[in-house]
Design goal:
Oligomer: heterodimer
Number of strands of chain B: 2
Distance between the termini of chain A: 15 Å
Strand order of the largest sheet of chain A: 1-3-2-4-6-5-10-11-9-7-8
Helix content of chain B: 25-40%
Shape of chain B: flat
Low-confidence stretches of chain A: none
CATH architecture of one domain in chain A: Alpha-Beta Complex
Number of helices of chain B: 3
Low-confidence stretches of chain B: none
Radius of gyration of chain A: 21 Å
CATH class of one domain in chain A: Alpha Beta
Strand order of the largest sheet of chain B: 1-2
Helix content of chain A: 25-40%
Number of strands of chain A: 11
Largest sheet of chain B: 2 strands, antiparallel
Largest sheet of chain A: 11 strands, mixed
Structural class of chain A: alpha/beta
Number of helices of chain A: 15
Mean pLDDT of chain B: 86
Distance between the termini of chain B: 50 Å
C-alpha cells in the first residue's frame, strides 16, 4: 500500500521510502511509535521499558536509518537493564552492547526499548515472565506465544516495525505465528550471539520479527555476518539479502512436504487446511511438490528437552548471588547464598529446567538420556541433509494449535513444552527457517507455516517467502483494536 | 519408565543449588517425572554420534593481546555487595 505518511503498520521499506523522499523525518517516526506504545501497550504489555529518550542510531543513511526496533530483554544494551524477565536479574545493567545492538546502531536503527519474554527464554507463552504476562493483540484472552512474546506482540500491534528475539527451540517462529507476523530463525552462526544471555549455547540464535519477509531480509542484512567476539559465527561477510527479492519464485523450485509434520496427531484442522492451501498456491505457480519423510521428527522434542536443559543447567550456574544479580537476604554462609538466591531468584519453570539438565547429565543417567539425545540429533541432521538432496526447501507447520488461552497448560507443562514439536528440530539441525503467515482460523487467530532450508539458504527462504507474500494478503491484515 | 521420588528431586535440587520448600518439591517432582518419562523415548534410537557441523566453520583463535572490552568498574557496579574493588561474601572459613 502506498501512502505519503506513516501508518501504524508501515513496513520498514515504506518508512525508508518516505524518509528518502523527505515526506517525513526521523523525529516524526520516533514520536509516532512512542505515541503508539503510550496508547496501546498498557493493554498488551509487550514492553518492559520504553527508553526516554530513545537510543538513536549512529548513521541516518544506514540500512535502517531512523527505523525503530524493540529488543528482547536477553540481549545486552549497554547501560540498560537486562532482566531476562527474571527476578534474579531484575535490576542488572548490561556493561556492553551485544554485537547485534552495535550493528543496529551502526546502520542507524533507533532502539526504542526492551521486550517482555518468558523468563530466561524458557516457555512458549510468555507466561513465565517474572514481571507480567503479555497479551496477544488479536485476542486479549490468548497468549502471544513465547518465549519472545513481547517482541512478536509489539510488531503485530503496530507498535514498532521490527523487533529482535531469540530462538532456541522455536521462540521466534512460534510467537510470530501466534501473532501473525514474519519470524526468522537463521542458520546457526549467521547472527552473532555475543551479548545474548545464553540458554542453550549450541542451538541459541537471535532472530527477527517484522511485518514482511522483505523487511526481515533488510534487518538480517544489517545484523548478520562474522563476528570476532563469537567463535561460532560463520565466515560470511556483510551481504544485501534483499537484492534478489523481485517477487518471483526461483525457476525449477522443488518444495518438500513433511507428512509426519503436517498430518501429525493433534494437528489443528484449520492449520492443516491453511497450509494445504499454501501448497496448492505453490503448485499453481509450477513449483514441484514432493513428499519427504523425517522419521526422527517424532524424537526431536525429547532430544531438544534433554540437550537444551543440559546446556541451561550449565549456563545458568553463573547466577549464584555472588557476582551479579539478586542476592538473598537470608544467608548465614556462602552455601545459603547459592541455595536461597537461586530459590528466590528463579521462577519454577527455570528451576525445573535446570534440574532436568543436571539429572540428564548426572552419572547413571547421562548414557540413557544425553548420549541418546546426541544420537537423535546426529540422525536428524542426516535426514535433513538427505531431504535437501531432492528438494530445495521444506514446508512445515510452525505450531500444532493456534494461540491458546492463558493458563491452558497450568496443570500439564509437558503439553506446553510440546508446542516446540515442529520448530525445535530446525535448531538441532542448525538450519534456517522462516515463519510466514498463511491464514486465519474461524475465530480470527493467525496461522503460520515455516519454510525450512539447508544451512545458509536464507536468501532462498527470503525469495520464496517474499514471492508468497506478493500472492497473498495475510500479512496485510492487522488486529482490529490497533488500527 | 523414569520414576522420580521426592528424595531424588531434593538431591538434584541440592546439586543445582536450589533450596526447595515442600510445595515446590511436590510440584517439581511431578514435573520432572513427566518430562523425563517423555524424554526417555530417545533410548529407542540407536546409532553413532556425529556432531551436526555448520558449513564454513573453521577453528579460529584470537591474538593473545590485552584488550579492555568491558570496564571492570562497570562490572563491579553490578555486584550485589562490595567493599571497594572487592566482592563481599559471608565468611567461608570458621575462626579456630
Amino acid at each position: 500500500m502506498k501512502t505519503n505518511t506513516i501508518t501504524p503498520f508501515s513496513t520498514i521499506h515504506t518508512l525508508k521510502n518516505l524518509l528518502s523522499k523527505k515526506k517525513i523525518d526521523t523525529k516524526e517516526i520516533h514520536d509516532f511509535y512512542k505515541e503508539r506504545f503510550k496508547k496501546y501497550d498498557n493493554e498488551i504489555k509487550s514492553s518492559l521499558e520504553i527508553f526516554e529518550p530513545v537510543v538513536a542510531g549512529e548513521n541516518n543513511n544506514g540500512l535502517l536509518g531512523g527505523i525503530p526496533g524493540l529488543i528482547k530483554d536477553n540481549i545486552c544494551q549497554k547501560g540498560k537493564i537486562i532482566s531476562c524477565a527474571s527476578k534474579i536479574l531484575q535490576n542488572y545493567k548490561a556493561p556492553y552492547d551485544a554485537t547485534v545492538i552495535e550493528r543496529l546502531k551502526k546502520e542507524g536503527a533507533v532502539i526504542i526499548g526492551r521486550a517482555n519474554m518468558d523468563e530466561f527464554a524458557m516457555g512458549s507463552s510468555t507466561e513465565t515472565s517474572a514481571l507480567f504476562k503479555t497479551k496477544n493483540p488479536w485476542d486479549f484472552t490468548k497468549v502471544p506465544g513465547g518465549s519472545s512474546g513481547g517482541s512478536a506482540a509489539a510488531v503485530a500491534a503496530g507498535l514498532v516495525p521490527f523487533s529482535l528475539g531469540s530462538d532456541t527451540g522455536g521462540s521466534v517462529r512460534q510467537p510470530a505465528a501466534f501473532c501473525g507476523v514474519v519470524g526468522l530463525k537463521p542458520t546457526y552462526g549467521l547472527i552473532s550471539r555475543y551479548g545474548l544471555i545464553a540458554y542453550a549455547s549450541s542451538i541459541d540464535q537471535i532472530g527477527i520479527f517484522s511485518h514482511t519477509v522483505f523487511d526481515n531480509a533488510l534487518v538480517f542484512s544489517a545484523i548478520s555476518g562474522f563476528d570476532e567476539h563469537d567463535a561460532t559465527t560463520l565466515k560470511k561477510e556483510k551481504y544485501d539479502y534483499t537484492k534478489h527479492l523481485d517477487g518471483k519464485l526461483p525457476e525449477n523450485l522443488t518444495i518438500g512436504i513433511v507428512e509426519e509434520a503436517l498430518y501429525a496427531e493433534g494437528m489443528n484442522n484449520e492449520i492443516v487446511a491453511a497450509i494445504e492451501q499454501a501448497i496448492s498456491l505453490f503448485t499453481k505457480k509450477n513449483v514441484t511438490i514432493k513428499k519427504i519423510k523425517l522419521p526422527m521428527l517424532s524424537y526431536t522434542a525429547a532430544c531438544y528437552f534433554i540437550i537444551s536443559r543440559a546446556e541451561a543447567a550449565s549456563n545458568l550456574a553463573r547466577f549464584d548471588g555472588i557476582k551479579y544479580g539478586y542476592r538473598t537476604a537470608d544467608a548465614k554462609n556462602l552455601k545459603d547464598i547459592y541455595l536461597n538466591s537461586r530459590a528466590e531468584g528463579f521462577g519454577q519453570e527455570v528451576q525445573t529446567r535446570i534440574m532436568v539438565g543436571n539429572y540428564v547429565l548426572s552419572a547413571g543417567h547421562a548414557d540413557e538420556f544425553y548420549q541418546h539425545a546426541k544420537i537423535v540429533q546426529s540422525r536428524l541432521g542426516d535426514e535433513f541433509d538427505n531431504a535437501f538432496k531432492s528438494v530445495d526447501l521444506l514446508i512445515m507447520p510452525t505450531h500444532p494449535i493456534p494461540a491458546f488461552s492463558f493458563d491452558t497448560f497450568e496443570g500439564n507443562k509437558l503439553q506446553m513444552d510440546l508446542q516446540d514439536y515442529f520448530t525445535c528440530g530446525i535448531n538441532l539441525a542448525k538450519i534456517p527457517a522462516i515463519q510466514v503467515p498463511c491464514g486465519f482460523t474461524k475465530s480470527n487467530l493467525p496461522i503460520g507455516m515455516q519454510l525450512v532450508g539447508p544451512q545458509c539458504s536464507e536468501e532462498l527462504l527470503f525469495k520464496v517467502g517474499h514471492a508468497f507474500q506478493q500472492e497473498t494478503d495475510f500479512h496485510l491484515k492487522h488486529p482490529e483494536k490497533f488500527k | 519408565m523414569a520414576t522420580i521420588s521426592r528424595e531424588e528431586t531434593n538431591r538434584i535440587a541440592y546439586l543445582s543449588y536450589i533450596r526447595l520448600n515442600d510445595k515446590a518439591l511436590n510440584e517439581i517432582t511431578r514435573q520432572l517425572g513427566s518430562v523425563l518419562n517423555y524424554a526417555v523415548c530417545v533410548r529407542e534410537v540407536q546409532g553413532t554420534i556425529t556432531p551436526v557441523e555448520v558449513l564454513l566453520k573453521e577453528n579460529r583463535t584470537r591474538k593473545d593481546l590485552v584488550d579492555v572490552i568491558v570496564n571492570s568498574e562497570l562490572l563491579l557496579e553490578e555486584v550485589p555487595q562490595r567493599e571497594g574493588s572487592l566482592i563481599l561474601v559471608p565468611m567461608i572459613l570458621e575462626h579456630s
